[in-house]
Amino acid sequence: MRLPKFQYKSPATIDEAIALVSEAKGDAVIIAGGTDLLPSMKQRRLTPKIVVNIKRAEDLAYIKDGENNVRIGALTRLSSIEESDIIRKKFPMLAKAAGEVGVPQHRNAGTIGGNLCLNTRCWYYNQSAFFRTCRPVCYKFGNEEDKCQLFPTREGKANVCYSVFSGDTAPSLIALKTEVKIKGPKGERKIPLAELYTGDGKRPLALGWGDILTEVIIPDPPAYSSGCYLKYRIREAIDFPLVGVAANIVLDSKDGICERASVVLGAVASRPVEVTDAEDILRSNKITDDLIEEVSEAAFKAAKPLSNLHECSAQYRKRLAKIFTKRAINSILSAISQS
Amino acid sequence: MKELIQLKVNGQAYEVAVNTHHTLLEVLREELSLTGTKESCNLGECGSCTVLIDGIPVHSCLTLAVEAQGKDITTIEGLAEGGRLDPLQQSFVDHGAVQCGFCTPGMILAAKGLLKKNSSPNEAEIRKAVSGNLCRCTGYVKIVDAINAVATK
Ligand SMILES: Cc1cc2nc3c(=O)[nH]c(=O)nc-3n(C[C@H](O)[C@H](O)[C@H](O)COP(=O)(O)OP(=O)(O)OC[C@H]3O[C@@H](n4cnc5c(N)ncnc54)[C@H](O)[C@@H]3O)c2cc1C
Ligand code: SF4
Ligand code: FES
Ligand code: FES
User: Fold this and answer.
1) Where is the 2Fe-2S ferredoxin-type domain (chain B) (predicted)?
2) Which part of chain B has CATH 1.10.150.120?
């Protein structure tokens, strides 16, 4: 299976890369580690005319421990994050999430930027060119008028794509209130990571042509805080998450009152889903089993997976979101009380 | 589009004109005739194409050949020295960890990558290191034993 032909560019600066991609409009893509992009190109889901390597452009592979935050360059390999002493100490859940992406070979090539900008997935879409010779193309693959082949909308209604965002690191990073720096044709901006995701399966990222994610900025963890990421997949390696739950909790003292709480679900929608009720339920309270039950019920309600990942049913994934939320919060509480 | 690139494979320098859309796997096998690196799924799922780039295991089927320029590439052909098998290779033979042999080059390089970083891994670390390498024959136990025997205790 060969890659389709393309022009390969490896500009010396990030600004040149931005110019190349923005001028080419939809005809150019960025390659970082290539572990998500190249399989899609081999199966002809993506056939860009130009592939722009950003690895030569600027040194974006770093983990910097700042005064009140940790900054990670977009081209930092997932294996470097998994093994970093800084990340393991300050954000163990991120080290764990990075360490659960695919297999070692993916983590040795795959970058944090590529993981956050991962394309969404669906069993109908993630198929070979051969599959598409005998089945109609769906809305995500095709044009505005092509129907979603799994959940078609009624005649006359706008199409919707429900493909799933399955990046492993985004839920933890959102729970940690991470911001990302984006450089583009109009300059540089900083946005909360949560705002990178549109929720639209056809165009899952709020990035324009030529926008490049350059840096991930995670605020330092306050005292008496801890996080936990739990991932469900069929095999212990290789597989994308079928559900991912990231939770982060800040207490005012050991076994004390909850000051902040966030629960973010992965792989249940076209974007990471924040369980917004979690903070309302837990804040200003001592966390009890009853409250944990209430939060997990909120996670159950917030998770609205559809049957478009073939490994297990949507109902099962929805129930797992609840169970994992409960487990995650319990493990956080015991981590804080043992710290 | 072709580009003239320099590749350093198993310590030897090559100058090859490669298609920019060809992967390192294709160039190793088709241009350099180094067919020890195996091609199977071609999609980053099976690990049979694993090579070391600067000592780190990656999928050569998901690496553009042009992006391997200036890096140190090790394939299975580069392990034996002067006709003597690498200790890992010998251990695979001794433990019966090779059956059809198709997964073996990738498996050994994934293990080599681990041992370069950590010369005394425990069994869990060994299993994790080869978790991206599928084998349809051995059932994995003998492979893990073979790697374990080489790890310094
Ligand atoms: C078999 C297999 C299993 C996998 N399992 C998992 C898994 O369990 N969990 C998981 O999360 N992922 C998984 N992946 C996907 C992938 O390996 C990782 O998500 C990886 O982190 C992607 O990073 P990359 O650098 O290789 O991305 P690339 O493939 O280089 O890029 C991915 C996308 O992001 C864009 N992009 C990359 N960098 C930037 C940037 N800085 N700014 C803007 N856009 C950018 C690219 O244009 C492309 O569209 C798997 C892949 C395979 C093939
Ligand atoms: S959910 Fe999206 S990717 Fe899946 S078939 Fe429908 S349009 Fe295609
Ligand atoms: S051929 Fe590269 S991973 Fe299967
Ligand atoms: S020995 Fe046959 S696939 Fe592993």
Assistant:
1) 3-79
2) 87-150
Tell me the ipTM for this assembly: 0.97
User: Domain with A244 in it: what CATH number?
Assistant: 3.30.390.50
Is any atom of ligand 4 closer than 6 Å to the C-beta of B137?
A: yes
Edge-to-edge strands, sheet with B50-53: B12-19, B2-9, B72-74, B50-53, B56-59
Structural domains of chain A, count: 1
Please tell me the distance in Å from B132's CA to the nearest CA on chain A: 5
Q: Note whether B44 contacts A2, CB cutoff 8 Å.
A: no
- Using a 10 angstrom Cβ sphere, with 0-12 exposed, 13-18 middle and 19 or more buried, the burial of residue A242 is buried
Contacts of B117 (CB under 8 A, 6+ apart): none
The CATH class, in words, for B87-150 is mainly alpha
> Is the model's pTM score more than 0.90?
yes
Q: How far apart are CA A95 and CA A169, in angstroms?
A: 9
Q: Which amino acid is at A20?
A: L
Q: Where are the alpha helices (DSSP H) in A3-91?
A: 14-23, 37-42, 78-83, 85-90
pLDDT tens digits, residue range B30-40?
999 999 999 99
- Residue A237's domain comprises 225-338
CA–CA dist A105, A96 (Å, integer): 16
Paired tokens of A276: 């917004």
Q: What is the pLDDT of residues A298-316, one digit of tens each?
A: 999 999 999 999 889 999 9
Q: Whose CA is closest to B46, among A191, A238, A67?
A: A238
Which of B18, B30, B59 is the best residue to mutate to test the A interface, defined by the most A CB atoms within 10 Å of its own CB? B59
Smallest CA-to-CA distance from B70 within B153, B110, B13, B115 is with B13
Instruction: HSE, CB side, 13 Å, CA atoms: give it for residue B102.
Output: 10
> Quick check: is A179 in a domain?
no
* CATH, domain range B2-75: 3.10.20.30
